[in-house]
Design brief:
This protein is mainly alpha-helical. About 85% of the residues lie in helices and about 0% in strands. The longest helix is centred in the last third of the chain and has 40 residues, at about 210-250.
Length: about 300
């Protein structure tokens, strides 16, 4: 009986060692996953600052915090458990769900591109309606819009994180996915918070109590920030189209092979391969977004006429 007890202890010890060995690999898995989702992270980082443009500067960090908190809750409480459950009970459903999210990103990206070039009467009316909103209502609307976009991007991040740990011990899967969720959320929204407060930092450095060189640097920061936010809005839109189309392309065997063939053909020049693939996906995402937008408009028109 004593030997049986010690045998049980040996089994427990072996299990603990195996789990510890597996957990030692968590930083590597987190780093690998972060590299895989770099495009989505760029998208998230570039898109978010626009949600505080035009609002009271004293509310900027509060708004970023609200978005970050809801993003982290979605990743930890909803998306990570959902990915684990789907991976166990219905692994076939993950790819279609990701593709649906990619289609939404293409649609939203196309809408943003369209709004840049088409200033219709309807858009002017919508602009006037926004001006009539209270600051509290506008802030709530901005946070809701940011969280809606973020949950799509977060779902892609969690799904990719899960794909990196498929087949590993359940403890390792959970720890890696939670670590990725926390790390990326803190990194993205910490950087976004820094971006939106850079103008305040510039104003502070421009004060006369600092040497002339620092004052000039502070003034240059203030002058450059509107341009940076404008650039980020373009980068975010491009990344949205690129990421959405690439997700869909990876879900279709034919286009997935085309992307791999493209990367293989330009393997000797990795930067060129990345640029060509991003450009191809961006154009494809714009075309797909255009088609989806027409389908959505036609569906709404048809449904409205039936009523």
């Amino acid at each position: 009986m004593a030997s049986g007890f010690f045998a049980l202890l040996d089994d427990i010890s072996a299990l603990v060692k195996a789990s510890a060995s597996s957990l030692d690999d968590v930083p590597t898995q987190v780093a690998k996953t972060t590299g895989k989702v770099s495009g989505i992270v760029i998208d998230d980082t570039a898109v978010t600052p626009k949600y505080v443009v035009g609002l009271d500067a004293s509310r900027e960090l509060s708004i970023i915090y609200q978005i970050a908190r809801k993003s982290l809750i979605n990743k930890l409480i909803i998306l990570s458990p959902a990915a684990l459950l789907l991976g166990y009970f219905a692994p076939w459903a993950i790819t279609p769900i990701l593709m649906l999210g990619g289609a939404y990103l293409c649609f939203e990206g196309y809408e943003k591109v369209h709004s840049m070039f088409a200033k219709s009467h309807d858009e002017n009316v919508a602009s006037e309606q926004v001006k009539l909103m209270t600051p509290e209502e506008l802030e709530k609307e901005r946070v809701t819009g940011a969280v809606r976009t973020d949950i799509i991007l977060s779902a892609e991040i969690i799904a990719i994180a899960y794909s990196q740990v498929t087949g590993q011990a359940i403890v390792n899967q959970i720890v890696v996915m939670l670590a990725v969720a926390v790390f990326i959320t803190v990194a993205v929204y910490g950087f976004v918070g820094l971006i939106v407060k850079m103008d305040d930092i510039g104003v502070h450095l421009a004060q006369h109590k600092y040497p002339p060189g620092i004052q000039k640097f502070g003034r240059n920061i203030v002058k450059f920030m509107p341009h940076l936010l404008n650039i980020l809005s373009y980068v975010g839109t491009a990344a949205m189209l690129w990421v959405g189309a690439e997700i869909i392309a990876h879900g279709i065997p034919f286009t997935n092979h085309l992307l791999h063939d493209l990367e293989y053909a330009l393997a000797e020049t990795p930067l060129m391969a990345w640029l060509v693939k991003a450009l191809a996906c961006g154009i494809g995402g714009l075309i797909l977004g255009f088609v989806i937008e027409k389908i959505v408009r036609l569906s709404i028109k048809t449904f409205t006429n039936k009523r």
